Amino acid sequence: MGPLDVTSRATTASSLAQVRAAQGRDEEAEGLFQEALGTVADTDFRNVEHEVLGPYAEFLRARGRDEEAERLEERLGELLPAAANSSARIA
Q1: 21 in Cβ contact with 59 (< 8 Å)
Q2: Closest C-alpha among 78, 72, 67 to residue 52
């Protein structure tokens, strides 16, 4: 994984965020989720953004932060057609 490997950087940060959340280290987990989203911001890596948003929304919901989770889920809905099209092109 190098500094230009957007996919690995974002998915690794998201995975580590989920581990930190399970450990009860919520502040660190949230920072890692935000780092993951920041990594794909202003890129065309919509599938990776989609992979990060779902667990982040679940994290927020589990902590009673439903309004914030809803905003992420709205973004997921916007990305869903793009994610499906990307997968169809690969297959």
Answers
A1: yes
A2: 72
